[in-house]
Amino acid sequence: MPGGDQELGSYYVGVDVGTGSVRAALVDQRGILLAFADQPINQWEPQFNHHEQSSEDIWVACCIVTKNLRETCWDKAGHFFDLPDFLSWKATGVTARSLCSLVCKWTYSAEKGWDDSFWKMVGLEDLVADNYSKIGNQVLPPGTSLGNGLTPEAAKDLGLPAGIAVAASLIDAHAGGLGVIGADVRGHGLACEGQPVTSRLAIICGTSSCHMGISKNPIFVPGVWGPYFSAMVPGFWLNEGGQSVTGKLIDHMVQGHAAFPELQAKATARCQSIYAYLNSHLDLIKKTQPVGFLTVDLHVWPDFHGNRSPLADLTLKGMVTGLKLSQDLDDLAILYLATVQAIAFGTRLIIEAMESAGHSISTLFLCGGLGKNPLFVQMHADITGMPVVLSQEVESVLVGAAILGACASGDFASVQEAMARMSKVGKVVFPRREDKRYYDKKYQVFLKLVEHQKEYASIMKGD
After folding, report:
1. Is 175 exposed, middle or buried (0-12, 13-18, 19+ CB in 10 A)?
2. Can you tell me the mean pLDDT for 155-174?
């Protein structure tokens, strides 16, 4: 851990022998404590108010803490797991890793495996030892059956029979994508009917949002993660866009408004959620115009926590333009609407980046907590100009996880077959084509907001 001109390896050990323990620390030339260890010292009280200690015992404790500085929560670790792989190991005793976790989070290549040079470059070359046994040298596609299934111990803990098949896992958002993207859409009048599954984009939206698009060949999209081979649907390349905060941003804007206490009281009186109440209030104040037109003078840039995709700029901030002095419930409802629209415009920006790079998307498949909000769904349809498919089962992440189990059990020949059988269309929301011109103009303003923000930053950084 060098700093400045400090040479690697210039570290010092400090030892403190106290009354009850020996403590030791590894410190660098900057005075930063890098590791710590302690060891209790034995004490004897042969009679009241007489205390004795052993100098030999103290020396042994000094030796132990010094050795422990070299053998840290790092040298003693047998394995490093991503959470899904840890749970699989607890269930089966198998240390195999999911291709999804390693490809998306651990720089593993589905085609080439681990890259020795990367781990050496970042100073973790010890992970290369023993054929990468600590981070995974058996890597399996999601849905592959692990070992002999549930161990007797895990079966007892879970209340299930031993030997039940356990599947190689998926990251939660990827499981959501798997749970919706393969649904049979026949009879719903959708453009994606009869088209390859690559024409579908899965959006998993809750506290944050993930945008999952797949392709037969690798597509590199600036600012969008991937392509990752077989990381979600076996045999397909995955691109993963995302918005760092979506549901959290809506909560932030609504709960921080002066009219929020009034909203809470009125929603409670009607036994409604605050968002159901806001949606009904918007219908009340829109009069004869479409509800989305209420934000003609109010615009939001939603990157209050930086931009993940497609700009990949963590320095970006949120923006609101068009505020007035009034802070009543109407103002809160319209600000809420503008925020939902901004999130949908962010999705449109991600889709445009993906399509510019080579994806061809015609239909959105949406799941997650925000999929329960009809305003959120309709705005995504209107602003992207694409129909939105909602799953019959609200908990699509759980359906996706169950699809993996179904494949591991041998009941289906492939993940794709299980997807087609187990994913069901619940509702389809089509865009209001007559509102397209309005949203195209708001999208121009949306792009101007970030353009201006960058200009402001440039001015402030200038001489």
Report:
1. buried
2. 97
DSSP 215-279: ESS----TTSEEEEETSSSTTSEEEEEEES-SHHHHHHHHHTSTTHHHHHHHHHHTT--HHHHHH
Does residue 67 carry a pLDDT above 90? Answer: no
Percent of the chain with pLDDT over 70: 98
List the structure tokens of 412: 């289906």
- The span from the CA of 111 to the CA of 229, in Å, is 8
Name the residue among 341, 432, 347, 446 with its Cα closest to residue 382: 432
Residue 283's alpha-carbon distances to 330, 372, 387, in angstroms, are 11, 17, 22
The CA distance from 463 to 460, in Å, is 8
Q: Is 309 within 8 Å of 224 (Cβ atoms)?
A: yes
Beta strands 97-98 and 363-367 are unpaired
Q: Are 310 and 241 in contact (CB under 8 A)?
A: yes
What kind and span of H or E run contains 69? helix 55-70
Mean pLDDT of the chain: 94
Q: How far apart are CA 151 and CA 369, in angstroms?
A: 34
Beta strands in 41-142 (DSSP E): 44-47, 50-52, 97-98, 139-140
For residue 402, the surrounding DSSP H or E stretch is helix 396-409
Query: Which of helix, strand or coil describes residue 457?
Result: helix
Q: Among 82, 117, 266, 187, which Cα is nearest to 424's?
A: 187
DSSP 3-state of 200: strand
